[in-house]
Structures are given as structure tokens and as C-alpha cells.
Specification:
Blueprint (H helix, E strand, L loop, with lengths): L1 E5 L1 E2 L10 E6 L2 E6 L10 E4 L3 E4 L1 E6 L9 H4 L5 H17 L2 E6 L6 H10 L11 E4 L20 H15 L4 E4 L18 H13 L4 E7 H10 L3 E9 L2 E2 L3 H10 L2 E3 L6 H6 L5 H9 L4 H17 L3 E2 L16 H7 L7 H6 L3 H6 L17 E4 L13 E6 L2 E3 L5
Parallel strand pairs: 1-5, 2-6, 7-8, 8-9, 10-11, 11-12, 12-14, 14-15
Antiparallel strand pairs: 1-3, 3-4, 6-16, 12-13, 16-17, 17-18
Helix pairs in contact: 4-5, 5-6
């Protein structure tokens, strides 16, 4: 047994008064005690001056992509060995940034599902600890639709039912479907919808019948309404894009809140990367231009939508869309968390979107996301007091995944 002690501690839901001492044994949290408690005999102690919190959950990543230009488009040309190397590096970067659980929503040919299964079987000899993986397999899309090159194309109700059965047979944790086009797949309709209503509803019903949640990629307002009508469990991106700009009626927000649909807005952009780029990625630039928006205005509009969503009780979690390009590098989920107070969330609420709330949305509330006895010892220590400033999240001091400390250098 050993202990980690900090004067400030966020347990996944709230800041504990007076800090805490977290006891760790056999990769699990053995106790959460007061800051100045007496330690068991022989218990080693690691003390930090800043804040201790659960390891972060990034609810939307693409492990098969390398964060370079046209990262998703290039995946189709990778060999199996190349994809394995990209996934390994992506996981390393997430863990170095304090992310101990990832939900992969953009696999190619079930590569990440297989990696998850190898983890469950004990991992690969000599390989360091990795974040826990929740995996969807390839996203289901239409021919020529968003991310069609990842191997998830299906058309018609029979093929959609077959796609769900295939994913069940492979043991996926969740089903991802493209309800609208995407900004990184040129030629897909970012303002419209993918699949007709009967098709999308068929997929959702088939998945629900087999106890699988369905998450819908939806940038467009039309796609969001399309996904809601089909009965999905979560909506990714949630941009509310129309040809006239970002638009989200209050009635839609009220429907989402009433249905308990979880929203992952995939906030956060690497602004340092943005400053160094001569121009925005082509798909993003074209979408913004068609909607009459610039980057900063679109982002501000999205924060305003999320403020209204939060005020109406919509459940928000944090994911980064990591890996799809230079503005969305692996390990960047903290950038979105830091922006959430601008949408009206308290510091505790913002942190929960990447800890307890995200873990629950991933079906892992009994495994991780909180500092509580019996849960995995997934811990993150940062310098500074997060109660007054979230910026220290960007610079982890120590990261533990299931009780194993990992290096945070060379992110």
C-alpha cells in the first residue's frame, strides 16, 4: 500500500474540504482519508503541493489517426503495423496528459477493438501501461459519407441491422453512427443528414435490443434533430450548424434534456497550432465559409449554445475529437474543459465532465472517474489549486493508471 496526499483534492464530483490522502493498494483506491491522517505502518507517501483528482476521461478520440494534416483520410492507406504504431503513440500521449480512459469513436476495421481486447488479456509484454479503452469499431456511415474510408459503410435497413450484429459479435462497447456529414470528409453534407429516418431508427432499435448505446455524430442542426427523432443515447459535436450559421432553438435543447441524451460538444482547439497554421484545414474552412462564419465567431456561438443547454439541464461531457488534425492533438481534452466555465459551468461541473460524468456516460461509473474505495487508482496530480484556476490541468505532475505511475514527459 502507498498513499498520495495533496492540500487540494477533487473527488470527481466536488472539492474535498482540507485536501485528502488517497490510499492505493493492488491498483485500486483503498481509502480516501483526511489530509493529515496517520498512515498505516510501512505505507509509502507521495506528497504534492497542488491538486489531486481522478484521471481524465476523453470521451471522443480517434486513436488510429496521428493528428497530422488529413489524418483521418490517410488512415485508409496504413498497414496494420502502421496503425498499431499510431495507436500506441496516441495512447502514450493521452496518458502523459493525464487521460487514463479514452472512448474511441473512429476505428478502422476494428483495430482499436482488438487493442482493447489485448489490454483485457494482459497487454503486450514489455509495453507500458495504457489508458483504458472503450471502443465503438468503425462508425456506421453511408456510401461516400463522413469517414466512409474507415470501413463502416452500410445502406438500407438490412445492412444496418447486419452492421449492429457484426459489432455485437466483435464485442464493441457502443455504436457510433454518422447522422450528418463531417468537416473533414469533403463532399459529405455538413448541413444535412445521413440515412433516412427509418434507417437511422432501425439502427438505434437494433442496438438497443442488444443493450448497446448509440452515439450520433451530428454537426448540423438537421442532424441533431434527426438523431433525436431516432432515439439515440448521445450526440457528438452538437455544433448546430446551418447555412445561416450556428443555430440551436430552445425547444431542441428542452427535448434533449427531457430525453436524457448526453451531449459531447468536443470543445477545445490547440490555439498554438492554430497560430502556426497558414490556413484552416480545407473542410473546416469550407464549412465555416458556407455558413458565413469565422473560426472565433463560430466558437463563441457554440459556447453560447452550451450555456443555454447547461441552464436547461442537458448532460454535458468532455471529449476532444483527438487525432483528426493539428488542432486536435492527442491528449488535448483539457483544452475543452478549461473553456467550459465560459459556458456557465462551475469549476466542479467542468471537471466532472471529464471525470465522473464522462465515466458514467461510458458505462464505467463502477470502475473509474471518481476517487472512491474500490475504484481503479486512476489519479492525476497537477500543480496549483484548480478551485481558482483550471490552467494547471495542462501540466500534469504525476499520473497513475490503475496504480502504476507513468511519465508525463515528452508529450
Amino acid at each position: 500500500m502507498y498513499a498520495v496526499r495533496t492540500p487540494t483534492c477533487f473527488d470527481g464530483s466536488r472539492f474535498l474540504p482540507g485536501g485528502a490522502t488517497v490510499l492505493v493498494a493492488d491498483g485500486r483506491v483503498a481509502g480516501v482519508e483526511p489530509f493529515g491522517c496517520d498512515l498505516p505502518e510501512g505505507c509509502e507517501l507521495a506528497s504534492y503541493d497542488g491538486t489531486l483528482l481522478p484521471g481524465l476521461v476523453d470521451s471522443h478520440v480517434h486513436l488510429v489517426t496521428d493528428s497530422g494534416p488529413d489524418a483521418l483520410g490517410r488512415v485508409a492507406g496504413y498497414s496494420a503495423a502502421e496503425i498499431d504504431d499510431v495507436v500506441t503513440e496516441a495512447l502514450r500521449r493521452h496518458l502523459a496528459a493525464g487521460v487514463t480512459t479514452v472512448r474511441d469513436l473512429g476505428d478502422r476495421d476494428f483495430t482499436v477493438v482488438e487493442r482493447r481486447d489485448r489490454q483485457a488479456a494482459g497487454g503486450s509484454p514489455g509495453r507500458p501501461p495504457e489508458p483504458h479503452i472503450v471502443a465503438s469499431g468503425p462508425p456506421v456511415t453511408v456510401p461516400g459519407g463522413h469517414c466512409h474510408f474507415l470501413g463502416g459503410v452500410a445502406q438500407g435497413v438490412d445492412q444496418l441491422r447486419a452492421a449492429v450484429r457484426d459489432r455485437v459479435d466483435r464485442g464493441v462497447d457502443v455504436v457510433k453512427v454518422m447522422a450528418s456529414g463531417g468537416m473533414v470528409t469533403l463532399g459529405s453534407d455538413v448541413f444535412g443528414v445521413q440515412f433516412d429516418p427509418d434507417e437511422l431508427r432501425t439502427l438505434v432499435e437494433a442496438a438497443h435490443a442488444l443493450d448497446l448505446r448509440v452515439l450520433a455524430h451530428a454537426h448540423s442542426l438537421a442532424g441533431i434533430q434527426h438523431a433525436l427523432d431516432a432515439g439515440v443515447d448521445g450526440i457528438e459535436h452538437f455544433t448546430g450548424l446551418t447555412a445561416e450559421g450556428v443555430h440551436m432553438p430552445d425547444e431542441v435543447l428542452d427535448r434533449i434534456a427531457a430525453a436524457g441524451v448526453v451531449v459531447d460538444p468536443t470543445l477545445g482547439f490547440d490555439r498554438a497550432g492554430l497560430a502556426s497554421m497558414p490556413e484552416l484545414p480545407p473542410g473546416l474552412a469550407a464549412s465555416l465559409r458556407a455558413a458565413g462564419l469565422d473560426f472565433e465567431t463560430a466558437y463563441a456561438d457554440r459556447l453560447e449554445v452550451l450555456a443555454r443547454a447547461h441552464a436547461r439541464g442537458v448532460r454535458l461531457i468532455s471529449g476532444s475529437d483527438a487525432g483528426v488534425g493539428p488542432l486536435k492533438r492527442h491528449g488535448s481534452v483539457v483544452l475543452g474543459v478549461i473553456d467550459l466555465p465560459a459556458a456557465g459551468l462551475s469549476t466542479e461541473e467542468a471537471l466532472a465532465t471529464a471525470t465522473s460524468s464522462a465515466a458514467a456516460a461510458c458505462g464505467l461509473e463502477r470502475e473509474t472517474g471518481r476517487l472512491a474505495p474500490g475504484l481503479a487508482a486512476d489519479l492525476l496530480a497537477v500543480d496549483g489549486d484548480l478551485r481558482s484556476d483550471l490552467e494547471p490541468l495542462r501540466f500534469p505532475t504525476s499520473v497513475l493508471v490503475r496504480g502504476h505511475e507513468v511519465t508525463t514527459a515528452a508529450r
